[in-house]
Amino acid sequence: MDSFPSIKNILLLDSEGKRVAVKYYSDDWPTLNAKLAYEKSVFTKTQKSNARTEAEITMFDGYIVIYKFIADLHFFVTGGDDENELIISTVLQAFFDAVGILLRNNVEKRSALENLDLILLCLDEIVDGGIILETDANVIAGNVASQGLEGGAILSEQTITQALATAREHLARSLLSS
């Protein structure tokens, strides 16, 4: 297990530092109070930064934390201090982009809460037990969309064709901006 890059947690917090969606993959924070304290500390340390255009990196309590903000949402991915920052950053970007695709670029707290099931499925598609499974946002969004439809849930009145069209647009935009 030590040979694989691993993630300690993925956090999606609102602009006040409150939980929207979180997933912990290690026992470094054994209690709910420890998790909440960590989330508050990370939020407080990073809230004054301007991580809206590019992801930022910081060392915090012996962990590497990479984060990015959009509208009223704050995305965080934590790895051990011996992990590769580029890999952690790739996980953050995959989560950030997949959420953007699934929410049809309407990435804000209200939309995230209305589609919380999709965001949680997204987390499950990216990391399982701390091991990184997928980092391609289009694949993640496609898998989440198909799981949501298999479960009988409506993907925000969005058909698979619309989801794929949105994914194609997003991919084209990201290729053009590179």
Q: Can you describe this structure?
A:
- The protein has a 5-stranded antiparallel beta sheet with strand order 2-1-5-4-3, with helices on both faces.
- A hairpin with a 2-residue loop joins strand 4 (63-70) and strand 5.
- With 178 residues, the chain is an alpha+beta fold.
- Helix 2 (85-102) runs antiparallel to helix 4 (116-126), helix 4 (116-126) packs across helix 5 and helix 5 packs antiparallel against helix 6 (160-177).
- The model is unreliable at 151-156 (pLDDT under 50).
- The protein contains 6 helices and 7 strands, in the order ββαβββαααββαα.
Main attributes of the structure:
alpha+beta; two-stranded antiparallel sheet; 7 strands; 21% strand
Brief digest:
46% of the residues lie in helices and 21% in strands. With 178 residues, the chain is α+β, with helices and mostly antiparallel strands.
List the helices and strands and how they pair.
Layout lengths: L8 E6 L4 E6 L7 H15 L9 E5 L2 E8 L2 E8 L4 H18 L6 H6 L1 H11 E2 L2 E2 L4 H14 L9 H18 L1
Helix pairs in contact: 2-4, 2-5, 4-5, 5-6
Shape: globular
**How many individual helices?**
6
Helix content range: 40-55%
Secondary structure category: alpha+beta
Strand content: 15-25%
Instruction: Give me the count of strands.
Output: 7
Distance between the termini: 34 Å
- Please tell me how large the radius of gyration is: 16 Å
Mean of residue pLDDT values: 86
Order of helices and strands: EEHEEEHHHEEHH
Low-confidence region ranges: 151-156
Let me know the largest β-sheet: 5 strands, antiparallel
Strand order of the largest sheet: 2-1-5-4-3
